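Quiz preparation item.
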């Protein structure tokens, strides 16, 4: 996460409209009393987050990283361990969404400007911002992906992938278990991790979205014959990782990298050198920062 308040490029804001135009209004929501499995099932179908509402009022946000934390990556796994005794079905069917709800997420109000929204998104590392009305209603959500797509036309030509990528890259080995990958995600706060071989060649990419999708579609749940979640967590990362990698060259123009990201509908691309060696990773957040606060 970048520190400090970004020095925004004012020229960008000449090309954008206010929040009520950009924010998505088709918000997917869930109640705090719904079972966690219901949330995972909903998130398995392209929803990286769910707005939590009770009696029509905003209560918080469920994100893929909160789900990964609960499923084995962080301190929330203690609920599965101590309350449900590792019983996968009990942990998913009997535990409610309230347990994995971020109750005080970073938000933006509809009467605030895009500048405030972008500042909070970048400074606080928030991939998604609920857009609220002052009376506590939910108007929509603002996601990094939507902003990158909206602002892609004003990407500064001349910036290269290597100028904007995150490096060095935190990776996990092919020998890692699903639980080890999830713990690494939560520890570093990264939603995606390249998977590397013994020779340090990238063989795949594991993401929080893929993990949630694996549970939400029941594919990973069915891997446990005894119903013990530890059976699932001991699976190799190859069970979940994506092998169809999207890469760009470190010398590629940023505009080309963004075009590749959008055309392949991915939230990040791996940055390699001429020999194909991994040099960095370029995420939507990196792109967004490069667009609105160029160096």
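Solution:
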């Amino acid at each position: 996460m970048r520190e400090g308040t970004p020095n925004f490029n004012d020229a960008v804001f000449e090309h954008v409209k206010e929040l009520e135009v950009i924010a998505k209004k088709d918000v997917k929501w869930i109640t705090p009393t719904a079972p966690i499995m219901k949330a995972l099932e909903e998130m398995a179908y392209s929803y990286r987050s769910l707005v939590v509402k009770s009696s029509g009022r905003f209560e918080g946000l469920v994100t893929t990283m909160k789900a990964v934390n609960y499923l084995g990556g962080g301190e929330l796994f203690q609920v599965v361990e101590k309350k449900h005794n590792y019983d996968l079905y009990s942990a998913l069917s009997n535990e409610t969404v309230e347990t994995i709800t971020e109750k005080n997420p970073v938000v933006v109000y509809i009467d605030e400007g895009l500048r405030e929204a972008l500042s909070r998104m970048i400074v606080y590392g928030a991939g998604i911002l609920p857009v609220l009305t002052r009376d506590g209603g939910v108007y929509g959500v603002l996601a990094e992906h939507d902003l990158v797509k909206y602002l892609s036309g004003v990407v500064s030509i001349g910036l290269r992938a290597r100028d904007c990528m995150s490096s060095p890259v935190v990776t996990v080995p092919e020998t890692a278990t699903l639980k080890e990958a999830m713990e690494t995600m939560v520890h570093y706060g990264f939603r995606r991790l390249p998977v590397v071989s013994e020779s340090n060649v990238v063989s795949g990419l594991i993401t929080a979205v893929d993990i949630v999708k694996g549970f939400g579609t029941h594919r990973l749940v069915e891997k446990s014959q005894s119903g013990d979640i530890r059976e699932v967590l001991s699976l190799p990362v190859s069970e979940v990782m994506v092998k169809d990698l999207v890469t760009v060259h470190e010398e590629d123009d940023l505009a080309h990298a963004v075009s590749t990201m959008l055309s392949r509908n991915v939230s990040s691309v791996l940055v390699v050198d001429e020999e194909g060696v991994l040099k960095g990773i370029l995420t939507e957040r990196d792109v967004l920062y490069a667009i609105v606060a160029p160096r």
